[in-house]
Fold this sequence. Notes:
The chain is mainly beta. It is built from one helix and 15 strands. It has one helix spanning 4-23; strands at 28-40, 48-61, 64-77, 81-82, 89-90, 99-104, 107-116, 124-133, 148-156, 162-172, 184-194, 199-208, 218-228, 233-242, 250-259. The longest helix has 20 residues, at 4-23. It is globular. The termini are far apart. 27% of the residues are buried.
Amino acid sequence: MPSLPRIATGAALFLAVNTVALAAADDLTTWSVGAEYSSGDYGSPQKTDTYYLPFAVKHETGPWTFKLTVPYLEVTGPGNVIGAGADRVVVGTDNAARRTASGIGDVVGAAFYNVLDDRKAPVGLDLGVKVKFPTANSDKGLGTGETDYAVQADLFKSMGSFTPFGTIGYRWYGDPPGVDFRNVFYASVGGAYRFSRQTTAGLVYDYRDAVVSGGARVSELTGYVSQRLSEKVKLQVYALTGFSDASPNFAVGLNLGYSY
Length: 260
């Protein structure tokens, strides 16, 4: 029987190989670009500033959703913060001089299947897998240089203008030389309110267990507003505040998507 990481890898490779073919189908494809600035001390005497620019394509066909994200990073800090966004890990409290590194981050592929339709079932349920490929330069601290795998369940229920939602997942981390990462659970819970057909706002709380022994857990709250600019274009802006040494003190960002 194939292992779960191999299943996850196969799903992500299927996504990468079939993106062009899927885009030609009569379904929904979304191209998006984002920009985020985050800053935090992450338990170090010095702060780390990160610019994160993700480029992504998502394709929805029937009950399936496939997504591929290619990020660009610029990190200025002492070196104990690796990566950005959901793939950020904090290793120790580095006291070295601040340095700036930039380049392509780790590419992330995901495949999800809608198991339960919330219009027909008590709750909606999507099950999926994610794979983080080690495309970032680990020598610059832009990535760990290892492949990570995750399985995830997304729950949601539309109740008029309000939609509560939640996520629970488990992630297997690849261990770079000299570091022993823990495989951990992660979760989120939140809600979105639709003010009109064009405007939606929401709050989401994210949690992840510590990935290194004695390290901090991710604990952060994000508020966002999503505005449809046209039938095909949507803009989302957000702000984040962190409550632990594994999260930034704050982050602000936006994402612009085009669907057809």
